[in-house]
Amino acid sequence: MKIVSLSNKKAEKWIKGRKEVWSKLSEQVDSNGSYIWFHCASLGEFEQGRPLIERIKAKDPNKKILVTFFSPSGYEVRKNYELADLVLYLPLDTKKNAQRLLSSINIQKAYFIKYEFWYYFLNELHQRSIDTYLVSGIFRPSQIFFKPYGKWYANILNNFTFLYLQNEKSKELLESIHITNCKVLGDTRFDRVNDIALSASELSKISSFKQNYKLIVCGSTWPEDEALLVDYINASKNIKWIIAPHEVSESHTIALKNKLTKSSILFSNLKDSDPTNYDIIIADGYGYLTSLYKYADIAYVGGGFGKSIHNILEAATFGAPILFGPKHSKFKEAIDLIQLKGAFDIHNKLEVESRLNSLLKSDSTLRSASTICKEYVTKNTGATDIILEETS
Q1: Degrees (nearest 5) of the Cα angle 9, 13, 17?
Q2: Where in the chain is the domain with CATH 3.40.50.11720?
Q3: How far apart are the C-alpha atoms of 48 and 312, rounded to whole Å?
Q4: What is the dotted CATH code of the domain comprising 4-188+381-391?
């Protein structure tokens, strides 16, 4: 990692951030307080833990919250999260670091989100009899826990007080290795996106921009996604577009703008402009994509031609039918919504064109897919309240 950090900004932040953990901890920790610890790999896992944090703070604002991240992608975006009393990088998983962290801060209980099975931290929590929970856990047969040579690693899971899981398959896998302190509750992200839908900000400029046109919001797009979409966007008529790239650097947004033949404007420049003069808005910042989905008639969610798709539930909660690329096998909601015909996976430009045309030319098809998405989110909410009730 130190070698990679010489030429990789993310790795550099990963190294630098961990050097600052102990000084930040000693400066900011309340030595007289007890903390509820939430550990998240990155931003997506934080969003799964967030409903728990928000409900804890709503019930008792004096409860102290520690949030740790493994990845700079999560830490850099949420290091100033207002409901957390302390936000840190997770130190490297060594016995010394685990003992030092838990001796430096009084942890009342701990929630690890989805995965992140760090032996020394989990073992130290267990040794100190601190209740530790896995939230929205999901397991697959390919994981080392379930391999003939993975018995030692599987023992790590015995350090959890209880494991709350997303699906029955995960429960079956755990039971196959004699882990029975678990139950299926679903994914707390449904509660998060439902909360977003209920509290989404009104963006008057976006309402003016949309007018009575159909609006397609393309969220968290990568260059591979944009390459599939640009020709269709340029040829489209009587459609409004919002593109929110995953990478919002100036160089990328300018390059994207130059590929578009229709009138376009950066989101940051909307304040002093008449949005009705434009066909396309390029979102050149972070933090408002979830509010933009509120205005979408259709959503395209990026990442499916790279490592994996980004969060499709943020669009589904507003009733937007969703298109995404083929890399979605790890996401139950994607598989479910494809089967229900609320979402559609695409593999090339022709499929993008065919699917968008089908949705845009038939109001009944669009309404049906929209209803499916919205109802799917609503039916899957509630895990957060059950977890809090059982772990309080």
Answers
A1: 175
A2: 4-188+381-391
A3: 13
A4: 3.40.50.11720
Mean pLDDT for 213-224 is 97
Find the mean pLDDT for residues 18-46: 92
Q: Is 313 helix (H, G, I), strand (E, B) or coil?
A: helix
- 44 exposed, middle or buried (CB, 10 Å; 0-12, 13-18, 19+)? middle
- Measured distance CA(21)–CA(70) in Å, rounded: 12
**Position of tokens 């989805």?**
114
Q: Please report, as a single letter, which amino acid is at residue 69.
A: F
Question: Distance between CA 163 and CA 117 in Å, rounded?
Answer: 12
Q: Mark residue 238 as left, alpha or beta (left: phi above 0; alpha: psi -120 to 50; beta: remaining).
A: left
Give the integer Cα–Cα distance in Å for 84 and 80: 8
Give pLDDT tens digits for 268-308: 999 889 999 999 999 998 778 889 999 999 999 999 999 99
- DSSP 8-state secondary structure symbol assigned to residue 243: E
Q: In the prediction, which pLDDT does 339 show?
A: 97
293 CB burial (10 A radius; 0-12, 13-18, 19+): buried
Indicate the SS3 state at residue 39: strand
Can you give the pLDDT at residue 14? 66
Which of 220, 239, 201 shows the shortest CA–CA distance to 324? 220
